[in-house]
Specification:
It is a single chain. The protein has about 325 residues and is of the alpha/beta class. The chain has two domains: about 1-155 and about 195-220, 3-Layer(aba) Sandwich (Rossmann fold); about 155-195 and about 225-275 and about 295-335, UDP-galactose 4-epimerase, domain 1, CATH 3.90.25. The protein has twelve helices and 15 strands. A seven-stranded parallel beta sheet has the order 3-2-1-4-5-7-12, with helices on both faces. Strands 6-15 form a two-stranded parallel ribbon. Strands 8-11 form a two-stranded parallel sheet. Strand 4, helix 3 and strand 5 (about 95) form a beta-alpha-beta unit. Helix 1 (about 10-20) packs across helix 6 (about 200-210). The longest helix is centred in the middle third of the chain and has 20 residues, at about 125-140. It is globular. The mean pLDDT is about 95.
Length: about 325
């Protein structure tokens, strides 16, 4: 079996690439070569920018694939390009969408693939919806063999998954925990959230590859474990060996007082309670089950991040912003108490 991944070295695609090679697939990775040190041994590398359509067309001229998966398509024009490039070249095209595309606010916190798609808060999600609509229309018109995959909050061992963090990632929040500084939790921390380790995601994804029953379908891949944000932050603090010093601040307050995209990432995603029904995935991939519980996965992350200084990217701007927001919020609460 032969597959082409566009990207292939990101958080979710790295785990999929490794599992695929271990299962004996012939894997090609097409990317700009920025993270090829993360490519699994045995994968064949095409160094190119996917937006250079003519160059890519030349690279794959004499190749056909069982599966093509694009991990870095975000807007409809990129999907249109893929349709031009891969029509007649692959038996299955997998588009990586996002679970943030599901309607916000939710009419029911239990999410299935039939939950409507609508997100007025986040352009990223609306673009993913537009990509899905384009691909399904092409499937109906010409039989383009699309499968749509919707990940939720998927993590690996390089970064701590959080609700609120700055542009440099999660390390600054971990550092605040280690220094016993107050850490922001959005809302009251009681909304439910689902975190999925990338190795669990990979099992579901690979099970959909080459799966004739997945053609024309949309499927989300997540863990079955649901945690409140209070539990998530407590588990992280415990893994760091510290006591959590949490400050709860409403999500709309954070969105209004920030240069960060908390309107999208919070109001359009993480501030909502979500519980995913993975029945469809389990029908398509018999035996699928997410096995990495968050309290287990986070211990590996903390150990890895603490032992690799290059993963500890400080963010002094975000640190100062946290201090200001916490001080201003406490002052406003005190004023009206």
């Amino acid at each position: 079996m032969k597959a082409l991944f566009i990207g292939g070295t990101g958080t979710i695609s790295t785990a999929v690439s490794k599992l695929l090679v271990n299962q004996g697939w012939e894997l090609y990775l097409l990317n700009r070569g920025n993270n090829n040190d993360r490519a699994p041994e045995g994968a064949k590398l095409f160094q190119a920018d996917i937006s250079d359509e003519e160059k890519v067309k030349d690279l794959i001229r004499n190749l056909e694939f069982d599966v093509v998966a694009d991990f870095i398509a975000f807007v409809p024009s990129q999907v249109e390009r893929d349709i031009r490039l891969f029509s007649g070249k692959t038996k299955q095209y997998i588009f990586i969408s996002s679970a943030s595309a599901y309607q916000k606010p939710l009419s029911d916190y239990r999410i299935t693939e039939s939950t409507p798609l609508a997100n007025p808060y986040w352009e990223y999600s609306r673009n993913k919806i537009a990509c899905e609509e384009l691909l399904i229309a092409e499937y109906r018109k010409s039989g383009f063999p699309v499968t749509i995959v919707r990940p939720s909050h998927t993590y690996d061992d390089r970064s701590i998954p959080l609700g609120v963090h700055g542009k440099n990632g999660s390390w600054q929040v971990a550092k605040r925990m280690l220094e016993n500084k107050p850490v922001i939790i959005h809302g009251d921390g009681t909304s439910l959230w689902t975190l999925t380790h990338n190795t669990d995601f990979a099992k579901g994804f690979v099970g959909l590859m080459g799966n004739v029953h997945a053609i024309g379908e949309a499927v989300h891949i997540t863990s079955d474990e649901s945690l409140t944000w209070n539990q998530i932050y407590e588990i992280i603090a415990s893994a760091l060996g510290v006591k959590l010093n949490a400050v709860h601040i409403p999500s709309d307050y954070l969105a209004a007082c920030s240069n960060y995209d908390f309107t999208g990432s919070l109001l359009g995603d993480k501030a909502n309670s979500v519980v995913f029904d993975n029945s469809k995935l389990k029908r398509l991939v018999p035996g699928f089950y997410a096995t990495v519980r968050f309290d287990q996965g986070i211990r590996h992350i903390i150990s890895n991040v603490l032992s690799h200084p290059e993963l500890q990217k400080e963010d002094l701007e975000f640190d100062s912003w946290c201090d200001r927001i916490i001080e201003n919020y406490k002052a406003s609460m005190k004023k009206w108490s």
